[in-house]
Specification:
With 218 residues, the protein is mostly beta strands. It contains no helices and twelve strands. InterPro entries: 5peptide_repeat, PA_immunity-related.
Length: 218
């Protein structure tokens, strides 16, 4: 069944204007499916994003910080210039989702629906975020800050980690086989407690594999 619903969102402007838009959606088993919509400059900290499944939607310069997006499904979506810091995302689905220039502090990706998790991060800030035991195979992290991020027991095999800052990031029993760390920096990885077979490193970043040996490289 296809139906139409008028939805009002408060816009973050000085005049507090509101914009009404007509959104096409399907209802399947009482779950709303919203397709091909663009959400721009919306403050979702004031009004929670409606539960449902969002397919091929774009969120541009939206603020989700400290909000709750638990149980919402994002399929083939894109977040650009958004703030998702400290959001709750229990069983949230991110399937083939791109995050671009987005602030994502203190997130717990282990709480997401990991069976469908497929993401890419481009020029994002993921400081203090946790990927504990998360399957991140073939994931792209490009020019992204991952300071104090936790990758304990996660699977990053065959991922591309390009120009990323891993200062104080934790790698413990992490699968890094065939992972490309080229041009990334500030990582410390113990090869004795992580799987690094056929991973790619360049100089001087590769020195992070020797840190635990307390040796001097001349």
């Amino acid at each position: 069944m296809i139906s139409y619903e008028s939805v009002t969102y408060s816009q973050p402007s000085s005049t507090l204007d509101t914009t009404c838009r007509l959104i096409q959606h399907h209802t399947i088993n009482e779950e709303m499916i919203i397709e091909d919509e663009i959400y721009k400059d919306i403050d979702f900290t004031q009004e929670r994003l409606q539960a449902g499944e969002y397919e091929n939607c774009k969120f541009i310069n939206c603020d989700f910080s400290n909000s709750d997006i638990s149980g919402i499904k994002f399929i083939e979506c894109e977040f650009q210039g958004c703030n998702l810091s400290m959001v709750s995302m229990n069983q949230t689905v991110f399937n083939n989702v791109k995050f671009i220039d987005t602030k994502m502090l203190g997130l717990h990706f282990e709480n997401c629906n990991n069976l469908m998790l497929s993401v890419g991060f481009y020029e994002c800030t993921l400081n203090h975020s946790s990927f504990y035991r998360v399957d991140l195979r073939n994931t792209v992290f490009d020019k992204t800050k991952l300071v104090d991020a936790d990758f304990t027991e996660s699977d990053l095999s065959k991922s591309v980690l390009k120009d990323c800052d891993f200062s104080n990031a934790t790698f413990a029993h992490t699968n890094l086989e065939k992972t490309n760390f080229t041009s990334s920096y500030n990582y410390i990885i113990d090869p004795e407690h992580n799987r690094v077979r056929k991973a790619k490193f360049d100089y001087p970043g590769v020195l992070g594999l020797l840190a635990q040996y307390d040796i001097e490289v001349i």
